[in-house]
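Format is chain and fold; as here:
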Amino acid sequence: MAAKNSSVTEFILLGLTDKPGLQIPLFFLFLGFYMVMVVGNLGLIMLIGLNSSLHTPMYFFLFNLSLIDFCYSTTIIPQMLKSFASKQNIILHAECMTQLFFLCFFAVSESFILSAMAYDRYVAICKPLVYTVTMSPEVCLRLVLGVYVMGFSGALAHTENVASLTFCANNLVNHFMCDVFPLLEVSCNSTYINELVVFIFVTIVIGMSIVTIFISYGLILSSILHIHSTEGRSKAFSTCSSHIIVVCLFFGSGAFMYLKPPSILPLDQGKVSSLFYTIVVPMLNPLIYSLRNKDVKAALRKSLGRKIFSREISSI
């Protein structure tokens, strides 16, 4: 189905590269990335769900982060793999708008779930005596619901912004996915207002998230500096280090892509940035949280121990 006042019913995604010799190696590379991402995030989801020791606010948010990351990459990578395996990666207009919607939904949701995780760490370190009351299951549920409401609102705004454009003869999208700026590039009418809307909305979303994170970690740092024991400081820093790494990776690559107009940031550079926050970051998140987290490693050993024990019993 074409958009209003548009003669384009489908788009051709030009993909990551136009060099035929790289198509097959890239196919297997990103298939490997996708498999690592699926195993990592679904494994973390199952681990948190099956271990009662991880049924805490921190891991409830981590559960949702893994779910968002899994869905985020699944929205993109299968279509990318299709582009490596076929001569022309054709996507219908309606499918393109659907991909754009879910891309924006999960991107905005991830921004706010990272903010909620920062607030959780602030309460845990700065107000430990009232942590269970402040971060009650009802509060956590409301925070996560707010995350998804903001994700839906952002996705709807961006999709409507792009869907209102007119697409004429040019349907070649210089990207591996239906993202905002590549679609603005192929529109046959002025996109100044649309670019301004994107810039303002992304600034607000990233601004709200970053301000929440900075205030939370500013208060956390102040609280840590008042801890006299070295062991106490080390423990407080270790609970935040994984989250700080993920925040820097996600917001750094996202800001590089969306806080610069396409005239300043060439689309080829934008592809690299997009690869980072849509594929690499979701793949690394479960590794960062599992390798640097004693609770997750202990729960994993416990789960593996149960499986080994049950196998030994069944073999007797």
Summary: The radius of gyration is 22 Å. The first strand starts at residue 10 and ends at 13.
